């Protein structure tokens, strides 16, 4: 087992690795760690390592054919000012997959990357 201080990794299957790199680095503050586009890249933000696997990558090839579409799982990014993030991303031409939702823990909205994978932007409720 890896040490607890290692990066936590999530794999997203994407149709276009370069489009995914551009999306995550331009709009969500990730930086490129490794790029072997068009097959694979990984980008990082804090302790999260996001593996972007294109159709020719070993990660994508290992996925069963009946699991080819984006899932209901999502990465969860905490933001300080959700309204400002929504405005910034809409100004950049992005659209959201859900409406803004408020609950006892905070507020959230979903957007998708170019391959349809979900990203949750979340602002915790203030104590």
Supply the CATH class. Answer: Alpha Beta
Count of separate structural domains: 1
Order of helices and strands: EHEEEHEHEEE
CATH superfamily: 2,3-Dihydroxybiphenyl 1,2-Dioxygenase, domain 1
Estimated share of beta-strand residues? 35-45%
Which spans have pLDDT < 50 for at least 5 consecutive residues?
none
How many strands, what sense, and barrel or not for the largest sheet? 4 strands, mixed
Assign an overall shape: globular
Radius of gyration: 15 Å
Averaged pLDDT, please?
88
CATH architecture classification name: Roll
Structure summary, number of beta strands = 8
Keywords: Metal-binding
Protein name: Catechol 2,3-dioxygenase-like lactoylglutathione lyase family enzyme
Pfam family, one: Glyoxalase
Domain VOC: 6-124
């Amino acid at each position: 087992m890896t040490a607890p201080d290692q990066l936590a990794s999530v794999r997203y299957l994407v149709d276009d690795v370069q489009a995914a790199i551009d999306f995550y680095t331009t709009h969500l503050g990730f930086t490129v760690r490794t790029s072997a586009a068009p097959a694979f890249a990984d980008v990082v933000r804090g302790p999260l390592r996001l593996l972007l696997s294109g159709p020719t990558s070993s990660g994508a090839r290992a996925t069963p054919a009946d699991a080819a579409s984006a899932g209901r799982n999502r990465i969860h990014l905490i933001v300080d000012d959700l309204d400002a993030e929504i405005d910034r991303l809409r100004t950049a031409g992005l659209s959201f997959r859900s409406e803004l939702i408020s609950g006892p823990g905070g507020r959230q909205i979903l957007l998708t990357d170019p391959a349809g994978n979900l990203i949750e932007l979340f602002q915790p409720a203030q104590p």
